[in-house]
Amino acid sequence: MAVTRGFTGRRRERDARLPPGQYDVGDDWPVLTAEVTPNVEPETWSLTVDGLVERETTWTWDEAHALPQSTYEGDIHCVTTWSKLGTSFEGVDVDVVLGAAGVRPGATTVLVTSASGYTTNLPLADVTGGRAWVAWSSQGRPLSADHGGPARLVVPHLYFWKSAKWVTRLTLLDHDQRGFWERNGYHDRGDPWAEQRYAGD
C-alpha cells in the first residue's frame, strides 16, 4: 500500500501532540461528569474570586464579558485517555480576574468551585501566566450545559478534570486543599505528559 509523504507527515505531527496513553477523538467531544448537570442560566451566573486577595470580587455575566477577552487555541486531554486536537475556547484569561482581585502574598493554591458543588485544586502557577481561562464558548459557539456552560474553567496543559465545568468561584489559599477527584484517588496535579492520572503516579 502506497502512503504519500504528506499523509505520513500529518500523522507524525498529530501523534507528537498526543501525551502517552492518549488517543485522538477527532471531531468528537465525549461528555463525562461526576454529578448531575446543573441548570445555570447566564442571567443568574456569577464568578467570585475570594480568599487571599486584596479585594473579594464578583462579576455578573455581563460584567465578565466586559473584561478583556482572549482565546485559547490548542489541544485538550482527558484522564480517560481521549484527546481532542485543535480546539478553541473563548473567554477571559484567569490572569485578568486574579489581577482585578489582587493576589495577596502567600497564596499558592486555587480551589475551584462549580455551581454543582464540584471542586478541584490547582497550584497558582498552573492558572497564571496565560495558562488558564474562564471560557463561555468553544469553536465560536456558546458552551452547552453538558460541556460546562454557561462558563467553565479551561486549563489545557493538565488533564481536563482540572478544567471544572460550571465554574462560579476561585478561592486563593496558602495551602493545598484537595478537590472532589483528588480526594477520591486522582493525582493532585494531573500532568498528561507525565501520566499523572492517579495518586502515586
TrEMBL record:
Q: Where is region (Disordered) located?
A: 1-22
Looking up InterPro entries in the UniProt record yields: OxRdtase_Mopterin-bd_dom, OxRdtase_Mopterin-bd_sf
Using the record's annotation, list all stretches that form the Oxidoreductase molybdopterin-binding domain.
37-181
PANTHER family from the entry?
Answer: OXIDOREDUCTASE MOLYBDOPTERIN-BINDING DOMAIN-CONTAINING PROTEIN, PROTEIN-METHIONINE-SULFOXIDE REDUCTASE
Protein name stated in the entry: Sulfite oxidase-like oxidoreductase
Taxonomic classification: Bacteria, Bacillati, Actinomycetota, Actinomycetes, Kineosporiales
